[in-house]
Amino acid sequence: QVGRSTESPIDFVVTDTISGNQNNDEAQITQSTISRFACRIVCDRSPPYTARIFAAGFDSSKNIFLGEKAAKWKNPDGHMDGLTTNGVLVMHPRGGFTEESKPGVWREISVCGDVYTLRETRSAQQRGKLV
Taxonomically, which superkingdom (predicted)? Predict the structure, then answer.
């Protein structure tokens, strides 16, 4: 699990960075753009070695944790889904992962691991189109 929280459910703590041309005295980080419980990455240890990413975090009881302002909805199959307040974004480079690759299209990942087009703003209580 990845996020900015230092609580025990978080395996990898990620923090905002300061621009290379500023030192710590000049920089002002007002509010983090990284969710406390940003996402969970699940990788299979046997073939076909798939990896899945799920937005949101899981608390110590292994329940999904979303902020009150996060977008939430019920899918046609009756399952609840949602997006983190700040969003979990992924981009697959065009041409694969090579020196010649070009940036691809950014997409947003939902709690259930579905892929959506981007919202207008990260904090909006809306969702993009299912890709």
Answer: Eukaryota
